[in-house]
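Structure first, sequence second, as always.
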């Protein structure tokens, strides 16, 4: 959430988040929160009743997700995108234990050892996922 990276919303997620935020129209949602869009055609609606077909990439706010508030909490947590609620269990991280461990960082209240790291804006990471590997190995 606090690392520069793209978050893409599927068409059904766009509508759900817009409704949750009480945004009056998809155009208003686009203007306020979207920095890129991919549509199957030049139009954002289809011939089947105007159903939204576009995938939308969220804007960033100082490198963080546009929906992250000043205290670091997600403003759309209840309707967050699949990409967000499945992290860190993405296939790209699960396929290789080295990639998984590279993503692993320690919580801020744990002292660093020689090979350990905490989360940083440059490197990102997920607190505690290394502990999942440790627990499974035991």
């Amino acid at each position: 959430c606090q690392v520069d990276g793209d978050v893409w919303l599927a068409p059904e997620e766009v509508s759900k988040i817009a409704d949750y935020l009480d945004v009056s129209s998809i155009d208003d949602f686009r203007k306020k929160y979207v920095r890129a869009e991919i549509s199957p055609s030049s139009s954002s609606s289809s011939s089947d009743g105007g159903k939204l077909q576009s995938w939308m990439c969220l804007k960033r706010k100082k490198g963080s997700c546009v929906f992250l508030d000043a205290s670091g909490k997600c403003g759309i947590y209840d309707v967050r995108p699949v990409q967000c609620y499945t992290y860190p269990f993405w296939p790209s991280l699960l396929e290789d234990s080295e990639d998984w461990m590279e993503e692993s960082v320690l919580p801020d209240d744990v002292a660093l050892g020689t090979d350990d790291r905490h989360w940083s804006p440059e490197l990102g990471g997920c607190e505690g996922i290394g502990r999942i590997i440790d627990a499974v190995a035991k």
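Margin note: Residues 40 and 48 are 14 Å apart (CA to CA).
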